[in-house]
Amino acid sequence: xxxxxxxxxxxxxxxxxxxxxxxxxxxxxxxxxxxxxxxxxxxxxxxxxxxxxxxxxxxxxxxxxxxxxxxxxxxxxxxxxxxxxxxxxxxxxxxxxxxxxxxxxxxxxxxxxxxxxxxxxxxxxxxxxxxxxxxxxxxxxxxxxxxxxxxxxxxxxxxxxxxxxxxxxxxxxxxxxxxxxxxxxxxxxxxxxxxxxxxxxxxxxxxxxxxxxxxxxxxxxxxxxxxxxxxxxxxxxxxxxxxxxxxxxxxxxxxxxxxxxxxxxxxxxxxxxxxxxxxxxxxxxxxxxxxxxxxxxxxxxxxxxxxxxxxxxxxxxxxxxxxxxxxxxxxxxxxxxxxxxxxxxxxxxxxxxxxxxxxxxxxxxxxxxxxxxxxxxxxxxxxxxxxxxxxxxxxxxxxxx
Length: 401
Prior knowledge:
With 401 residues, the protein is of the alpha/beta class.
């Protein structure tokens, strides 16, 4: 879909010019300038700002992968007043001592140097407490933000709770914001962390975008990138994008970026559904693309698969039956020995011709024969007039020869 001779970054710059954009609009970097403030994002930002002025404790912001949590946090950081000191931890896979050292480094708090492995929590907690008291005395607030907080160990979470004990008679000295995936809520709800849960003053779960919001999100990013005319995505294409991406902004960015690349590489100015489907197969797992198909399309695909399977079964059955000529001779012999039918006073209704290849019993017996003449023999249809009323059970293939 995309020419392999050109790097993706070069193609993005080329498709931006091709569609009249100042820059590629669907980067997955958390750029606050592209933040689409849906109702949910506005509520998430409001919860963070509320926690900033609430006087300490924990604020929880959770959401699915790619829902926009980090982007909301970056927007929050741009609105923090100058009198607020911020420590941002984005690698939470730390021990308790490593966490305390990282917090001091972020707040620029000096601490005594120790031999590797000799430092204790107190070596960092005491100077941090002095720093918090000093800044509180001059009217400054202190905020600790931890991203990907679902990766924190129980010991680190307990240490964070103990850090909120640093307080004056009026307020706590440290505000802690935990940002993470939905399992963070389950972690905080564990019985062993009940004391931490009681100190959560605000929590918000960032849901995915609706179909209407997905279309608004795409238009918003294109407008920020400089598009002034109609967008290159058709209406049904926007619906398809929402279904494929499930309303997750990061997935929308991945798919729309690749779709615009595909349209540029194909020389098209409109991104239709076929381009979106090709792009989805390139950036998503094939099972995800299949699962996003409408129910009618899945039923149609199932009918085609069943029809194909039935046709294959008939061919295999006919081929197996054709490989048993001895069976045909035996059936003819039994038909010759059968008594002639007694004429009826009323004319018999016409009976359709029967193809023995469709009989389950015959097919099973033919499969057991193991004959090697399957390629040369052909199935034979027997007229109702010569067929017996019922065919007795046949002997195994080894007895027939």
